[in-house]
Amino acid sequence: MYTGEPMNPDCIFCRILARKAPASFVTEDAFTAAFMDLHPINPGHVLVVPKTHAVLIQDLPDDAYAQLMAAARRVCAALGRSPLAGEGTTWYVADGPPHQEVPHVHVHLVPRHTNDGFRLVFPPGYGKPAPRIDLDRAADMLRALTPAPP
Ligand SMILES: [Zn+2]
């Protein structure tokens, strides 16, 4: 259970959760909080975070992950009803290097507009379907490593 003290004093999101650093909170419950991204891609860009300090999604307990996704869905729905709504919302999670800037799990909710300039840049050669044998081998390897549901 969250105590109100930073779980990791070196983590900016833990400090925000403990009100040791500023943020503009959208909502908060016993397990999660949502606040505005300090560097919004578009107006209305929200971060949803668990109150459990974990760097990677797979490090979160199942219940904390479920609470995080449920909170993100609620905030996404609110965003869509607000004047900040885009034509849609991009959910983005950088799960580790090289793109995770804050080492505390967070879901970006970014309102999107046609031609807003935010996009994924695909590597050279992208677009050609992979050979089925390669896809099957990758699927087999990952299936063997994927734990069964609890
Ligand atoms: Zn943290």
Task: Please trace the helix and strand order, writing H or E for each element.
Answer: HEEEHEEH
What is the CATH class designation?
Answer: Alpha Beta
Work out the count of structural domains. 1
CATH topology: HIT family, subunit A
Helix and strand composition category? alpha+beta
* Mean of residue pLDDT values: 94
CATH architecture: 2-Layer Sandwich
Order of strands in the sheet with most strands: 1-2-3-5-4
Share of helix, binned? 25-40%
Verbal overview:
This protein is of the alpha+beta class and 150 residues long. The protein has a single domain, classed as 2-Layer Sandwich (HIT family, subunit A). The chain is built from three helices and five strands. The chain has helices at residues 12-17, 62-81, 132-145, and strands spanning 25-28, 32-36, 46-50, 88-92, 107-112. Strands 1-2-3-5-4 form a five-stranded antiparallel sheet, with helices on one face. Strand 1 and strand 2 form a beta hairpin. The protein is globular, with a radius of gyration of 18 Å. The two termini are 21 Å apart. Bound molecules: zinc ion. Zinc ion binds at residues 7-8, 11, 13-14, 53, 104.
